[in-house]
Amino acid sequence: MITILHHKVAILFKVAFLHISLLVILVPAFISAQAASTVENPIQKCWEYKYENSADLRLETDANSVYLRRGDSGIDAVSLESGKLLWSTDVGGKIESNLVPIRDNLIFVRRSVTNESGKPETVDVRAISSATGITRWNASLSKGSSYAIGVMGDKVLAFSVDGAMQLLSVADGVEIWNRKTNVGIGTAVFTVDRAFFVTAENEIRFVTISGGESTFVAHAQFPISAFKGTSDKTLVWGDDHGNITSFGLSSNKTAWRFKSGGRVNEILRVNGYIVAASNDNFVYAISPDAGTRVWKKRFPGRIQSLIGVGDDAVLVQTLGEEKLVLVNVKDGKTSDQVSVDGLEEVPLALKDTGLDRIIVLTNTSLYRFSRNVCSAKAQNGPL
How far apart are CA 46 and CA 372, in angstroms? Predict the structure, then answer.
């Protein structure tokens, strides 16, 4: 499943886009890995890639590369193995969505910028080669605001905050269907054949790959702040009152509800557990079947970011702390730390690409950390 967070939805959807999961936090600028000698697989820095222009925090990855947005229209592809620049391109206009790597393509929504010639503004979905950055196809898109893209099998669904949806073929950009809902769209969860989304009215609805008609699923009592599909049969969401709800799609009813002490900021599925971060400064591990607490761990400040690392750990960042903490998902114990030196606070994005390849983005550099041995091809690591 793929989860995407949409920008600019009233009240609920104001900050951060994930996609496939993208997390924004505040940390100091210079990062180094630091671990006790007793740690079996200590986190180490593999490489650092410095960039000159400011980067958008909505980075994305595939098996080979990290894709980094620069300014309104620039994209860099950086090798996951070596940290070296593979290619760089400027697509013109303004990139209006997340970047979606799929089947050797990188797909996104682009809006043209009206210039002195007076040409009308256009919006399109563009696919470029993930190997070279060269354009493969463009498809016209209905005008809207604040777009996102998700994957449904061999199709991509582009949708806007004001309810426009368009399903396209990944291969050539041919339109499958085009719909306009009468509700605003925020957070979305994608499966092979369905897209579930939260509306501005706090309803959960879905559209199918075959028809595109909007179907009601459930209504949440409080504004949803985190949304996750944990299987084809279950949706889990957290709200701004601290509730975490598991909803069965087969039974069409709530399976269980867990109460935390504050607004729920993030929900993950790691090694069979539901792991959630709350504004009460706790991370919780919850049984997916019974909804009972397995463990909880308190942190010294508000949790800003939470990602899964491999199949056995989560990486946690808290506001005001100069370190990232790696927590064992089975017992909630700290297994390692990534220390952060310096006093200046800057935005940071975190992503786990699998195989314990942890990507960290600040406002000046892109880093890769790992619990495994770094490749000999890495340009300036390990430490």
Answer: 10
- The mean pLDDT values, 10 residues at a time, for the chain of 383 residues are 43 32 30 43 86 72 91 92 94 93 96 71 95 96 88 94 93 94 86 91 92 90 91 90 96 96 95 95 96 96 87 87 89 87 45 72 80 68 40
Token representation of residue 212 = 């595109």
Asked whether 80 and 65 are in contact (CB, 8 A), the reply is: yes
**Whose CA is closest to 358, among 1, 76, 55, 80?**
80
Q: What is the DSSP string of 296-314?
A: EEE-SS-EEEEEEETTTEE
Considering only CA atoms, give the Rg of the chain. Answer: 20
Find all residues with CB under 8 Å of 6, minimum gap 6, and list them: 13, 17, 146, 148, 159, 161, 185, 186, 187, 188
Residue type, 258: F
Instruction: Return d(Cα 312, Cα 199) in angstroms, integer.
Output: 33
Element (H, E) at 26: strand 23-31
Q: Which two tokens stand for residue 110?
A: 């682009």
